[in-house]
Amino acid sequence: MSYTIYDIQERSPVVAEKIEKYIKTNKIKVGKKGQISDKSYLILLDLFSSQEEIKNDKKNGKPVNVLNDLKIQINHKPIFKSQDQRISLFHDDAISFLKSLPTASVDIIITDPAYSGMNQRLKLGRGKIIGKYADAGKDGAKWFEEFHDTVENYKTFLQQCYRVLRNNRHIYIMFDSYSLLSLAPIARDVFEVKNVLCWDKANIGLGHYFRRRHEFILFASKGKRHLNSKSIPDVWKIKRVVSSEYPTQKPTEVFELMLKGSAEKDFVVCDPFVGSGSSAIAAIKSDCMFIGCDTSEKAISVSKERIKQFLKNKTDLYQKSSLLGDDEAITKLFLNGESK
Ligand SMILES: C[S@@+](CC[C@H](N)C(=O)[O-])C[C@H]1O[C@@H](n2cnc3c(N)ncnc32)[C@H](O)[C@@H]1O
Questions:
Q1: Measured from the CA of 278, which atom of ligand 1 is nearest?
Q2: Listed residue (241, 236, 233) closest to 216, CA to CA
Q3: For the segment 201-250, what is each residue's pLDDT rounded down to a tens digit?
Q4: What is the number of the ligand 1 atom nearest to the C-alpha of 276?
Q5: Which CATH fold topology does 62-336 show?
Q6: Which of 231, 239, 235 is nearest to 217 (CA)?
Q7: Phi and psi dihedrals of 118, rounded to 5?
Q8: Do strands 192-200 and 214-222 pair parallel, antiparallel, or not at all (unpaired)?
């Protein structure tokens, strides 16, 4: 078994730069691809995995605003930061953004990536789905850039998610059915996959071989953590957003349910594919902090306006009303708050 410095970085709550500095100072041999000897691996692991997390959850009895510390360590500036410093948006690519975050700096990842695989599969000649999708922008440009979900790229994405997530925390990643089969298995190499949830959109959409009514949500953990509630079912009936301002806008309730399952007050929520900002609105509603990015200028401007307005007067510009379906168990969770 050969180890690399990335294995140490993944297992350690200490920022990657500190580990690299130690390696340099102590002249530890590192191969071109980051390989280290078994002996160095054990020494480094012993040294860095036992250190305290970068931030303790509490300082002088008050929760630490991790985003203040991120400000020092992130090597590029947010394009938007809320007045209370609890919400930050970056105009960036998901992997480059995650790489810029310190190790073990976020408490939960909830995300809905723009997979390219499904759309390539659906390009059946002038297939209706991709046709409408591709024509939506000027000069045949797509609605937004897709994440290049090659196996290699996706693995890097997951490894970065693992690195930035604190120990004993959860991650939720949305998948269409094609990407679930091709990419989700990779998550098993990185995280402890606990379940695959189903978002039931209540009404049928497009589709050649059966009309689509659902998407999947992969639920996994880094370390051990229980869910906040034992009453959340694994099928979530929540209506889709119709005539949305931003394509593929998801109902805030989908993200709120993820947070109901796994977040605490003041958790740092991370979404590296922020789109219209539905996950950010869910984070605010759940009393959490938020950090996210998107490559699209439109996504940044839409989510920025949406967040600003919501912080100002609790009005959601792009989802005017609740989209909860007729499901008693789910409705109960929203009506009663937590039901353990
Ligand atoms: C499925 S949408 C997210 C929709 C969002 N959940 C919502 O409710 O509005 C995916 C987003 O990923 C963005 N995106 C595509 N490639 C990206 C990349 N490499 N890094 C970050 N964002 C990317 C797209 O611009 C798009 O806004």
A1: 8
A2: 236
A3: 999 888 888 999 999 999 999 999 999 999 999 999 999 999 888 888 99
A4: 9
A5: Rossmann fold (3.40.50)
A6: 235
A7: -60, -45
A8: antiparallel
